[in-house]
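The authors assume throughout that readers already know how a fold can be written as discrete tokens. A single example would do more here than another paragraph of explanation. An entry of this sort, consisting of the sequence and the corresponding backbone structure tokens, reads as follows:
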Amino acid sequence: MDLLYKPNISYLNKIERFIEENYPINHPLTNQKLFKWFYDSKNIRYDNQQKSEEGLSLILALENDRIISILGFYDCLFRCNENLIKGSWTALWFSVEKYRKGIGAILMKNLVDEKKIICGLGASNMNIPIAKALGYKFFNNIPAYNFIINPKVAKRYQSPLRKVIIKERSLAKISFSDNSFLIKTEKIIDDITKKYCIKNYLNNNSITTHKDSSYLNWRYANHPFFKYKITSIEDKKGNINAWIIWRKAKLNEDNFIRIVDCDQEKKIDFIKIYSHLLNEIIKQAEFYNCAYIDIYSSNNNLNRCLDKFGFHKNTDYLLPNLIDPIDHSRLNLNAELYIDPKLNINNINLEVMKGDGDQDRPNRLIKV
């Protein structure tokens, strides 16, 4: 068996056939536009990133020149307290069925040997023991929250195992008397991302994805299919204090808003600033006739704000995590984190949202 790190793009058609032969019909990653957006090494994902030679952000396992397993990832910068450290998000693991119980450890070990920090979301039961053996730390059940706009529509999408049937609209518990901020919402395009780069960001004994203009361009402005919007708050001096990225998504023929990312200056009144942002997104949800807003977050400051604002924990409502198609079998979202022991980083929180990894991507084939 041979391992190939960052294979040449000439393997693309062979990879597409491998996915078609071993995974469900019409898997979305057989769409070359989406696949190249995720895995083409030429995509710049952080400022001052050196342009890579042509290739794909994958590790292939080959037997007699036949693909038997693929591990996908994308490179990024991580904020780790005061430092920026190069690392990767894992974002794909496919194997021929008879190899699935052993090949994953080999591929993941290869990635661990290359990277200082590796994160992943949505690890399977098969993947968890492999990752733990390699020194990964696990974060189970990333908190999920909802704000109900239209209870009649929202309750259609609850799991049969729900604890509480949705009957009422959520109510904001915080008043909004301060008008000293400019709050606006706009589409994310290449021309505007530089102004949203938070330079004096919050360091909270945590690891999180660094969101500079190159990352925002790749991840949100240049997404091949999803259209994202950014709601920001600006002070009297014209400084952007914080922002939230979201998109309008579909549940069958109904709309809802999925919040996928956020960032903020370190010297802000967190509850006050984010309450204004959330209030603006509720107005957007009403404008688009959305049933509810959802958000997955392990950011402790943000989650305290959601609690105080009036969002409900999804442990009661059990609205779907997977929406395309709707799937109630995986309501929870976990996270995994590897840190090179040489970095000597301990007792640190991992702050993740839906925009990280591969959690907010199409799950059906999009034909173009």
About this structure: The CA atoms of residues 72 and 167 lie 42 Å apart. The chain has two domains: 2-141+334-350, 144-188+228-327. Residues 270-287 form the longest helix (18 residues).
